Amino acid sequence: MLQPKLLLLFPFLLFLLSAGVSDTKEIDLSSKGIPVTVTVPKNAAIEQGIKNGEVKDGVTYHCWELVDGDFTMEVGMYDEPMWQSFKDYIRDAKMLAELMAEEVDVFKYIVKDENGFICSYKSYGEVNYEIYYAMQKGDRLIEFSSGYNADKTSLAIMQRIYNAAKQSK
Asked: Count of domains in the chain?
């Protein structure tokens, strides 16, 4: 039988063993053209986004997906100064989401704040979730969204993606 003093040390020993063990890591996308660091699941990989490197009117779009199983976050940025106010970009993203509402059976915001939102929509009997979050770095707009492979991702995972976007630096 363990001595009472040793039993008191057990929680402290567990704490020491778990210190420094994390289920997340930071990914800096600066070398990929986007000046942002995102905290993601520790097994997340960086994958090229579908429109990465696309050039339109001389402006390059940088787009990367951070993927670990159901966690799929897309981070994108046009390599040009913002051409409207930050608030106008957010307003436009919400307007696009609300336009989608006209095409589905049920649409609602789960979270709606000044820099983005999580929404749900029901179509053909299935509920899906989307996230959008934006941040301004200097004169650039960096946008976060659920990635292309995020169909049928749970609300809990979407909330993790949204929170990761909100904590980006």
From this structure: 1
